[in-house]
Amino acid sequence: MKKVFVVGGSGRVATDLIKDLVATGNEVTAGARHPEKVIKLNHVTAIELNLHDSVEKIAELMKDADAVYFVAGSRGKDLLQTDAMGAVKTMQAAEKNGIKRYIMLSSLYALQPEMWSKIPSLAGIMDYNVAKFFADNYLVSNTNLDYTILQPASLVEEPGTGKIQIGEGSATTNPIPDVAQTLADILQHDNTIGHVIMMRSGNTPIEEALAKI
């Protein structure tokens, strides 16, 4: 059992992620600007988290965690202070507390800006790509965290299949439940540490796909 801190704990991905983390025996603290919107389950504690706050205040909230997930997103409304600098603050807070494991939900090709204009779904969210580029680069280059960055294709509200494809491919979407399950399973796969993982809908069971990394 691990104590897991989920940043952005009331969102679409977070809701399924929290269910999956609890199902595998973890204790979850879900930090959200509106904690009343966090899913109510046993072994889940909802707390108020504002990414505009100082690193010190954020660090105090996550001080007991073994691992941190960043799945927050402003959906275009607060890209600089939430998606970019907010993410960086949580990395700094994790390091301040000696927390090593950090799992980031990002976006397909976030670290490859030359790809953004080539894919219509990415070209339409250019400012979001820039925010994720900044955050992902900081995580890789400016921290000593045991990170994994998951870069899914476009998220869709469809039933999960339990199957994905890692790396290049033709699929352009991922059902949200599959993204959440992949994030949850990453915590059990230390072989994913230090990796940036692109994922799409596919035909490989999630567990099998992660084990091959």
Going across the major beta sheet, what is the strand order? Answer: 3-2-1-4-5-6-10-8-11
Query: How much helix is in the residues?
Result: 25-40%
Distance between the termini: 23 Å
Low-confidence stretches: none
Main beta sheet: 9 strands, mixed
Helical segment count: 7
Proportion of β residues? 15-25%
C-alpha-based Rg, rounded: 16 Å
Question: What's the number of extended β-strand segments?
Answer: 11
Overview of the structural elements:
The chain is an alpha/beta fold and 213 residues long. It has helices at 12-23, 55-61, 79-96, 120-123, 126-141, 176-186, 206-211; strands spanning 3-7, 27-32, 44-48, 67-70, 101-105, 146-152, 154-156, 163-166, 173-175, 195-201, 204-205. It is globular.
Secondary structure blueprint with pairings:
Layout: E1 3-7, H1 12-23, E2 27-32, E3 44-48, H2 55-61, E4 67-70, H3 79-96, E5 101-105, H4 120-123, H5 126-141, E6 146-152, E7 154-156, E8 163-166, E9 173-175, H6 176-186, E10 195-201, E11 204-205, H7 206-211
Parallel strand pairs: 1-2, 1-4, 2-3, 4-5, 5-6, 6-10, 7-9
Antiparallel strand pairs: 8-10, 8-11
